[in-house]
UniProtKB/TrEMBL annotation:
Residue ranges of every copy of the HhH-GPD domain listed in the record: 134-301
Gene: alkA
Lineage of producing organism: Bacteria, Pseudomonadati, Planctomycetota, Planctomycetia, Pirellulales
Species in which this protein is naturally found: Novipirellula galeiformis
Matches recorded under Gene3D superfamilies: DNA-3-methyladenine glycosylase AlkA, N-terminal domain, Helix-hairpin-Helix base-excision DNA repair enzymes (C-terminal), Hypothetical protein, domain 2
Listed GO MF terms: alkylated DNA binding; DNA-3-methyladenine glycosylase activity; DNA-7-methylguanine glycosylase activity
Alphabetic keyword roster: DNA damage, DNA repair, Glycosidase, Hydrolase
Protein name according to UniProt: DNA-3-methyladenine glycosylase II
Amino acid sequence: MKTFVLKPQPPFRLDLTVWTLRRRPENAIDDWDGRVYRRVFADSDSPLLVEVSQLAAGTRPRLSVAVHCDAWSPELQNRVTSAIERLLGIRVDMKPFYLFVADDPKLGPLAERFQGMKPPRYPSLFECLSNAIACQQVSLASGIQLLNRFAQRFGQPFDALPYRRFAFPRPTDLADTNIEDLRQIGFSRQKATAILNLAAVTRNGHWDYARFQDVTDDDCITTLCELRGIGRWSAEYALLRGLGRLHVFPGDDVGARNNLYHWLELSTKLDYEAVARTLQQWKPFAGLIYFHLLLDKLALNNPGEFHVQTQAED
């Protein structure tokens, strides 16, 4: 095992960030025991188990990163560091957001309650869009359970007591997989076809985050919607949770719309256009509102699993 320390941009709270990433307590890919975040990464040679814990918070937050692997090198540390920086958003500067909401009577208290959350991003476009596909037209809990089975069946295993853990499958891991293989673990035929098509087009390396780095939102959505099984909601989900475009609020997300509706205590349900109009006053931070409302709902619905007050000390 190799350990090293990372220094996130302050403020940072690991617990809030991990819950924003994992979304549900059933998530076995992004494991959290209340103190340590664990995830298996599929590396070119062998899988790695990465464990992250918070050593200090406040103005000088520090994270301890432990990597369980067969062979260590400076290059591997750089890859792990890059992955953690993206996954946990530790380099994102939230100061402009906090300054923006400081005097806002509605958004200010919400931001203060969850101060230290950083916007997470999926490690790869394939994982991001696979999450979107799996969670279409089902409850989030059902989608997460489906993704757990997907990882257990096709992801690289890492044996670590007390149980085996699995990396999220890579496109190459699905090279010999067919529709019936995916249907056996609960994917519909339509979703299985979409996942395999996504794996096929991303195996050549042309469908990754770099492809969309300098592309406008509208053009990103148009291009992503060319993929089988990807519509406007999935594309906007990828803009926020994959590309890190924090001004994007996936307006077709029914759960997110309901969160916004309840938070603002509205009398009329919101549609896609109404969501955009409502969030205009908080431009360009709609995506951060999306994440904060998710945490607000998690804190309400999972009191035994989620503790807003839990944070590391200086």
